Amino acid sequence: MQIDETKNHIAEFLKKLNTDVDGIEVVSNPATKKPRFLIRTKDSKLLIGNRGANLQALNLLIKQMVRKKTGNEEASNFIIDVNNYYGKRIDEVLYQARITAERVRMFKRDIEMTPMNAYERLLVHSFFSEDTTVATESQGEGKFRKIVLKYRDAEVAQAGF
User: Fold this and answer.
1) Residues 127 and 141 grouped into a single domain
2) 61 in Cβ contact with 17 (< 8 Å)
3) Which of 37, 98, 103, 125 sits in a 20 to 30 Å window from 113, CA-based?
């Protein structure tokens, strides 16, 4: 599905919700490698909800609509954002991951991060995928699922211990 068609589906859905939209722009983000549809609106509290719950639901609904209309799973490989909520959240999660990784390297111990949703965990796993001193592992269940950053001693790993 083309970007313009997806943009139209989003606008149509928001119109049915009686939401005033100032604009929808497409932003590419190298960290996520997915197009991000950035909705500008004064009704951001309604669309974002408590800790992003409504925004997660909005993403799910729109993606289901696009999948159903196209019959293509890849067509729904995008993110809907409201007033840069996810953009800021992505920056915040990666910043916390960097700081936690520095602590892991300094103290040479495993450290748990705070619970996060699946998308945020994916970002952190991707961020450390090629790191030689820090490994990532998800632990926990449901909304309490979090990432543990684990110290990898390069010399011990090479020795086979």
Assistant:
1) yes
2) no
3) 37
